[in-house]
Specification:
802 residues; 59% strand; globular; mainly beta
């Protein structure tokens, strides 16, 4: 394995070096009509849309382009007219293009203040084209988020992620200003299916890992703000792979007044799940349909509808499982023979109507009515009979690797009948007023929630003929959970925020301050959360920026945080509180005549009234009868730029420590379940010399050891550490049809892009652990049998656009 790894990286290094030798160089300066350099201008090749760069603060750009090809270069920037120019270069020739971009008058249907250089503090804007190109077993926008600093995920089967010591339930997700939810009962990445966000429909991606402004909600970790496209003409796409298929189409009608973009996705990870230790008949089927329709009444008013229907089914008939684990000194093996099956069904529906009214170019008023409904069923009866063996470790023995001693035999039966029915209605208003030095934002929202929850779980365990726990009078169950809960409640939230351009003698200074209000009639709690961000862009020779954010974040319980370990509701529960302080810098610099950005952020979170929880795979089990105080502190580093000319790549490094002290347990500070002292991630792109139709994308992850503990144990026992998470995914693609290379055949003449991808998941074939299955020996000892994630798998994917 080590030799394979070394050979792989040597070949990769040679490919990178060779890829630079058959190209030419295009560079120049872009200015406006007044001769002022324009930064953040997108410079893209029409024939190879994935190849591009942006200008720096001096308006300079440099792009390596294929030699001996007729190319069209497109220059675009918000507020300027699009400019095109043609170019042809010999090998290693340098061509200089100095461009003047004329300004244009642009009236927007919605006020969106977006300055990429002055990015509003902690919000980071991501390119959907780049994010969608990342090879991942789960796919989607979330695969790209996991490569960002402060973001962690140790499960390639799941789209969920943790941010700076928070858990999965502490992340806000908006699509067109509508908050979206993930299913509640899902307990493993195998069951999860599709995330809500359809990447084929995405226009912009904004993300913050903490310290975000008051206009966003009341959760403690992060915010993901997605906008879907408003089409301008007919387009579509389709893709098919060994993991499923997708299709989308978009069009306009009625002289451009009516537009729609719709997408359908089907996913089955049966092929991936076949690499797990637990063998059986996997039948996962995940399907969803989304549409976004807009009607423009006039220049001042438009009406839109966002709809989603999702049907996620997970059916599994387990057969056998064999896992080898332990250490060299004590190698162990367990074999399990199964009976029974699991059937899970997760249905979700979302509909939202938005009226967007802008009486003048500086004022925007938005009204949103939305409804969300989830119906979830989790049912299984599975019996397993296991054998726990010690293996022969003497390499000179003929029985090396075979069983040398039986440590235990036993039986377990897992039974579950869980159902949940959740409905959320909301009506809200958002407004924005833009003046010369101020941008005012405000909002008001009323939300009604109705949740019916029924839990019925029990586990029977037998070891060497005795049920656990042992009784000579009756048969006792190892674990039981029975509860029924009903909640009907209302929330009112509001916010007020001002972004002020502060006059200073040198540079640009921006101050954003705001406050959120939240009232929930379930516990009659009124929450006030002030937040502020200061951003400074000095006029130094070295282009740097500084930002400092501080604020309160009150996460009022939704549903899961209310549940005690016995399954019932804690009616005295209050909002979890977090005071956050985040400071960061950005350094723009040039290396190899190409633009780079180095970002640093340090943070500290002081948290109180925390609800302790335990994590098993992706299931979070809250202990609402307990309360804790805690903290999270760390530093995030990221460097991104054109390591290969025209292609963005980046590397992220994060350090974190997070602990909590549960009141009354007498154990002081203990690590939180997300205490992962280091995370490293990498995304790298390259292409073949002189022929960008052949591309490569590599994503790599390393996550330090996470805490865990025995099943149904006390929270302070969760101090054992799982092995670190290590994974590399690799993707190769070949473009067959592009805008510059259209096919003349009748079959393909309407296709604008077509490419074939080969993806290699977990190329180093590392056994990563996500959780443990606990078995008992004949001596009463418990052994943690690791539940491994997926091994090396290959995937072919064909994508077309028309």
């Amino acid at each position: 394995m080590r030799n394979f790894t070394i050979l792989f990286f040597l070949l990769l290094t040679e490919l990178i070096t060779f890829a630079q030798s058959n190209n030419a160089t295009l560079k120049g300066i872009i200015k406006d009509q007044n001769g002022i350099p324009v930064d953040m201008v997108n410079v893209v090749l029409k024939e190879y849309p994935t190849l591009g760069t942006t200008t720096n603060a001096k308006g300079e750009f440099l792009l390596r382009i294929p030699a001996r090809k007729n190319l069209t270069v497109i220059f675009t920037s918000l507020g300027y007219q699009t400019f095109q120019d043609s170019v042809f270069a010999q090998r290693e020739e340098t061509i200089i293009k100095n461009i003047e971009l004329p300004e244009k008058n642009l009236e927007l249907a919605e006020i969106i203040v977006r300055e990429q250089r002055r990015n509003g503090g902690s919000i980071v804007s991501l390119d959907p084209k780049i994010i969608n190109s990342i090879s991942s077993a789960s796919g989607g926008i979330e695969a790209g988020l996991k490569t960002l600093p402060g973001v962690s995920s140790n499960n390639e089967l799941s789209s969920q992620y943790t941010v700076r010591g928070g858990n999965f339930d502490e992340n806000l997700v908006y699509v067109n200003d509508v908050e979206v939810y993930r299913p509640f009962l899902i307990r493993s990445g195998q069951q999860e299916g599709l995330s809500f966000v359809n990447s084929d429909m995405v226009s912009t991606i904004d993300f913050s890992a903490g310290g975000f402004n008051a206009k966003y909600g009341d959760k403690m970790s992060s915010v993901l703000d997605i906008k879907y496209r408003k089409p301008s003409d007919f387009q579509g796409s389709a893709s098919v792979s060994m993991l499923g298929a997708t299709a989308h189409f978009e069009d306009v009608a009625l002289n451009g007044k009516l537009s729609h973009i719709s997408g359908i996705r089907y996913k089955t990870n049966r092929y991936i799940l076949g690499s797990l230790d637990e063998q059986g008949e996997y039948d996962p089927r995940f399907l969803d349909f989304q549409t976004y329709i807009t009607y423009q009444f006039n220049e001042k008013l438009d009406l839109s509808f966002l709809g989603n229907v999702a049907q996620n089914e997970y059916n599994f008939i387990p057969q056998t499982r064999e896992t080898t684990f332990g250490t060299w000194q004590n190698p162990l093996n367990t074999k399990i023979y199964f009976d029974g099956q699991e059937q899970d069904d997760f249905q979700t529906y979302l509909g939202a109507i938005t009226a967007n009214y802008h009486p003048n170019p500086n004022l925007n008023l938005k009204f949103i009515v939305s409804a969300y409904h989830a119906k979830e069923n989790e049912t299984y009866d599975i019996q397993g009979q296991y054998y726990l063996n010690q293996l022969e470790r003497n390499m000179g023995s003929e029985e090396f690797g075979d069983s040398s001693l039986n440590l235990g035999v036993g039986t377990f039966i897992n039974h579950t009948r869980n159902t949940l029915d959740a409905t959320v209605y909301s009506i809200s208003h958002k407004g924005a007023w833009n003046s010369e030095n101020h941008l005012m934002n405000w909002g008001l929202k009323f939300q009604h929630e109705k949740i019916n929850d029924e839990l019925n779980e029990w586990i029977y365990r037998d070891s060497a003929g005795y049920s656990i726990p042992y009784s000579d009078e009756q048969v006792l169950l190892y674990y039981t959970l029975n509860a029924k809960n009903k909640i009907s409640s209302n929330r009112v939230t509001a916010f007020l925020q001002d972004s002020w351009s502060v006059p200073v003698n040198s540079g640009d200074l921006y101050l954003t301050g705001g406050v959120r209000f939240n009232f929930w009639d379930f516990n009659n709690e009124l929450l006030i959360s002030p937040r502020a961000t200061l951003s400074y862009f000095p006029q130094w020779e070295k282009k740097m920026s500084f930002r400092l954010s501080a604020g309160m974040y009150h996460q009022s319980p939704f549903f899961k945080e209310l549940k005690k370990s016995d399954g019932y509701i804690n009616y005295d529960s209050k909002a979890q509180r977090s005071f956050q302080l985040v400071g960061g810098t950005d350094l723009l610099f040039t290396a190899w005549d190409r633009p780079f950005r180095f970002t640093t952020e340090a943070y500290y979170k002081h948290m109180s009234r925390l609800v302790p929880y335990q994590v098993d795979n992706v299931r979070i089990r809250y202990l609402a009868e307990q309360e804790a105080t805690g903290y999270a502190t760390g530093i995030d580093l990221k460097i991104n730029g054109e390591f290969v000319s025209g292609l963005q790549s980046w590397a992220s490094l994060s350090f974190l420590q997070t602990e909590e002290d549960i009141k009354g347990d007498g154990h002081g500070m203990i690590p939180r379940p997300t205490d992962q002292w280091m995370n490293f991630s990498l995304f790298f792109q390259d292409y073949l010399p002189g022929n960008p139709t052949y591309k490569m994308q590599l994503s790599g992850f390393y996550g330090a050891r996470l805490p865990t503990g025995p099943p149904n144990g006390e929270r302070y026992q969760d101090v054992f550490r799982m092995p670190s998470y290590r994974r590399i995914d690799l993707g190769f693609s070949k473009v067959f049809i592009s805008p510059a290379n259209r096919s003349n055949s009748a079959l393909f003449k309407h296709i604008t892009d077509m490419w074939l991808s080969l993806e290699v998941f977990n190329i180093l074939n590392i056994n990563n652990t996500i959780s443990y299955f606990w078995v008992s020996s004949i001596y009463g000892d418990q052994y943690a049998v690791p539940n491994y994630l997926t091994s090396r798998k290959f995937n072919l994917k064909l994508t077309i656009k028309f």
